[in-house]
Amino acid sequence: MIGDKWTLLIARDLAAGPKRTMELHTGLFPISSRTLVARLRDMVKDKLLERTDFGGNPPHIEYALTERGRVLLPLVDALRLVGQSLNCNQCEDRKKHLGFYCEACPKNFQTPEAEPLSRSAPAPTPRRQRDDSIVLL
Fold this sequence. Notes:
9% strand, single chain, globular, three-stranded antiparallel β-sheet, 39% helix, Arc Repressor Mutant, subunit A
């Protein structure tokens, strides 16, 4: 159950609250949608997740951790601490390739240094040359 690939990462992403399938898919790059849906179904069957169908078109389905699923969170935190102490995390590589850290990354909570304010006037923008061509459709 918890040894299956992606299970702990799904639990990590649902720790903050319920999410839709595509929200999970975006945060769990490079998982395929087929693998994600299969893992979500298995986790619902194992009573780690609760699936709520709000209906509508397109379907609005959310997944949330159950009490049984929340038992996994201390394990996820412990694994994160071990990875950080061994300097095994790939945060910077993920940031370079995707442009963001994973949602649970502590680096999301670091505030960047502010740039000093400049009092000079902004540079003028160059004018566009006039285009007299006619577009025929």
